Amino acid sequence: MTAVQEERTTEDLKALAERAGRELENATALEILQWAAETFSDRFCVTSSMEDAVVAHLASRALPGVDVVFLDTGYHFPETIGTRDAVEAVMDVNVITLTPRQTVAEQDAEYGPRLHDRDPDLCCALRKVRPLEEGLRGYQAWATGLRRDESETRANTPVVGWDEKRGKVKISPIAKWSQEDVQTYVTEHGVLTNPLLMDGYASVGCAPCTRRVLEGEDARAGRWAGRSKTECGLHG
Q: Contact, 153 vs 231, CB < 8 A?
């Protein structure tokens, strides 16, 4: 941690995010992450759902050994845990696994079984949002794999923005990418992807709340299908 980083106030970080969002709108994903590495050093991390390792791979090129934060909700597909383990084994990153305060069994005992069916917002808050807020406390900036083409709710995602809820700079280096861009990068660099993406899943979350997508549906349609819920709460 540098002295400059220590001295940054919340107001400094917010102004920095707003300026960078304008100045880096037309930058490449790698350039955005190089800026993040130079600006925040070890106060910067990548979050990954292990749907694919594209942003983690990009970040490792900008900042070798970068922290990659993964939320183990206790409900993941085995393929997702396997992807995390493979990323940790073969990429120049430091995988940090966050877990909720309660195991699934402990949550079931307090709230009743299958909370994800009865109150998915509360389940996400307990198993995703709260652990991430605690896990990000030591960082000034975090990167996500959000893309504008994934859904209407993500259409205005800035490449660099301000995470008001957490008081941090939020970086979405591939916000402007299409699914074709992602696939091209995966192919060119041999990047690890979750095997479920080859089995009809376009977006991979917790097993009880994720299904395969149908032809013509957007990438997020398989998440909380049949509900008005479209986000877990990590991104607003």
A: yes
